[in-house]
Amino acid sequence: MTDTATTTSHPLLEQHRETLEAAARALRERSYYSRYPESPSPRVYGEGSAERGQAAHEQSLNSDFSALADQPSTGAVVGSEVSPYGPRLGVRYPQLDVPAAVLAARAAIPAWRDAGPEVRAAVCTEIVERINARCHEMAHAVMHTSGQPFVMSFQAGGPHAQDRALEAIVAALEEQRRIPASVTWEKPAKGEPIRMQKDYRPVPRGLALVIGCNTFPTWNAYPGIFASLATGNPVIVKPHPRAVLPLAVTVAVAREVLAEAGFDKALVQLAPEDDGGTLAKDLALDPAVKIIDYTGGPGFGRWLETEAAAQGKLVYTEKAGLNSVVVDSTDDLRGMLGNLAFSFSLYSGQMCTAPQNVYVPQTGVDTDEGHLSADEFAGRLGEAITRFTADDARAVEILGATVNDDVRGRATDVPALAARLGGEVVLDSRAVTHPTYPDAVVRTPALVATDAGNEVAYTQECFGPVAFVVRTADTAESLRRFAETVREHGGMTAAVYSTSEEVLDAARDAAVEAGVALSENLTGQVFVNQTAAFSDLHGTGANPAANAAYADAAFVANRFRVITSRRHV
Length: 569
What we know:
Distance between the termini: 17 Å
Strand content: 15-25%
Radius of gyration: 25 Å
Number of helices: 22
């Protein structure tokens, strides 16, 4: 039995105790906390950090990723990444020998399990700290696999992802701390009470599989990686074939730290493949895999939720949905339009949290600049987007590059899309030439208007820079349509704009019915497609867009079990 005394002897415990306690306190209080600064400034990360990061990234291009050469390998190499900005990355990764990797992972469990929750949390925190030290390198890796603009790649792919990792670590630690390591149990009886010593030992479920996505390779993978690792489970990371490099760097850092901390590197392994492979499905059905975390399209997500879950595996998914905005009235039209224009434009709408459907009453919207009909409102929103994206050099730093052919196809022929769906083009998407990467396909957001009765137009996800203005009879219908579509098709975010407390109350009720988080009257520097670690839950698990939330108790508590040993004393 590993007792509390042995779990407090690791040198990383004292090094990271203050960080873990501060993060755990923030999680309990849902207060502001960020361990990792989001500014790429040399004043924050040190003089020369940007140059060193870029050099490290460039050194990895067109070469073998040697940091993972010690993984079990078939002897073959894989790698077919092409930057959405144009260049082929040319990074070659060792192909994982899956049977050997599974055996190695299983062999690594006992020492990691017996280290205890506190030590695991400290080692995991050290991994995140080391990743943070390579933020500039990671930013280039994220940018040239996802198509995010550089600053967003730095922030979302670096510090924001690292905060989510730390959040998962402390959420896992808190759940394991709920069970004491040992207690003396007494039951009153005639004469002396009955006494027993009861020891409680958290144990992992087994091998975890994390299936990464193309658009947010680190941000969406870190919660699953660190939740499983912190609860004692080894992890195989299966990145998206077009976004391997950020997770390869992550796994390399994790293996380095684990070895230095006295544990087996096989606790974290990378399973890359070329585009078009079936490795995700093969691994998901491997009997050794007990936990699966997935971010991506709804088709494969639903398959995992049925086929893999039917085999008794724990499956956590984040898929896709119809993120909605209900517009009733506003006392800050400019602020609202500016906020929405940014939300539609950020990373060309290629975010699971980006708004898609804007419900507007046909009777119009009362604003501080006068009453606007639904069509007038749509026109003003289109004008706001046009102004926001007018300067190409500035626009590319918000829009980034389109990530795949499906997104490009929709964005480059909006009139055909609108005609097929029975809508009218309010604002067509415009091609933007990137000043540094002329091969990048960069598109501004498009708006398509339609009536609420034309459900075929707006009840399917249109991932990327295309949004819909849906004309409804009144705000009551807007709220009903919003709740119904999200309840049926899913949604990660929702927003409402109204000066009426009655409407806001009704919107809160509609959000509860839909099972989606709600933002109210955002007009400043907080946007519907952004969440804050330690305070905002990402997803709810209460609608079809996702069956899990980052990072509530349900996301971590089922990744371990507690084994009791008891005896008379």
